[in-house]
């Protein structure tokens, strides 16, 4: 589904992604881990063209992301993104947050958008918050709304950038549970996370980045038990 070939990204002289090549299959859950500043967010942002690669190519479903603007717009609609800091629309109710993009960008009728919003809020356990405003919600609830909002566009791929890092510890689990359900439903997911338990339990594959280099990738079991590289061992010693 995603084919990344020799992807590099520079900010000025700073080589942030260094010749990354990997593929991600449909339905796969991939966890990206690595030290702060290693390029994890930049990698995710390249996948939905929030950043433009300096060199290399990214194909999603056979479409090159450096292709025409029209294609890019379409491809982006198929990719949901969830950030560390929710980015909900503060002046809209929870339900309106979910209805906005489908109506605006896809021309979904109000009635259908509303119906879909209700289903999704139910799915993330927040049916009773449909009429609430974001600032009345807890961090965990906000993040579940953000996930539901991304799902309202019916994406084929979901990207998560440290979705639980800004949460109080007691709210991490409720968000990870929603993500786990999503993984079980067959969604293709790329998740930057510091939650090693989640990576180990839910991911099909772990990518370890360090200084912009894809140092190592593998199945969680073998990666966590027996990382091949000294850099990954060193990182795991610090975080586990
Ligand atoms: P991570 O998510 O692994 O912490 P990032 O991808 O955010 O790492 O950042 C990798 C490097 O790229 C860091 O050195 C960071 O300062 C730099 N960087 C990220 N975004 C920008 C930007 N928009 N302009 C300049 N430098 C950036
Ligand atoms: Mg980051």
Q: Can you give a write-up of this model?
A:
With 240 residues, the protein is of the alpha/beta class. The protein has one domain (2-237): Rossmann fold, CATH 3.40.50.300. The protein contains nine helices and ten strands. Helix 3 (94-106) packs parallel to helix 5 (139-151). The protein is globular and about 55 Å long. The chain starts with a strand and ends with a helix. The model has no long low-confidence stretch (mean pLDDT 95).
Question: Which features does this protein show?
Answer:
10 strands; 4-stranded antiparallel β-sheet; 9 helices; Rossmann fold; 6-stranded mixed β-sheet; binds magnesium ion; 240 residues; alpha/beta; binds adenosine-5'-diphosphate
Q: What would you report as the Rg, rounded to the nearest angstrom?
A: 18 Å
CATH superfamily: P-loop containing nucleotide triphosphate hydrolases
Helix content: 40-55%
Query: In CATH's first tier, which class applies?
Result: Alpha Beta
- Helix- and strand-based class? alpha/beta
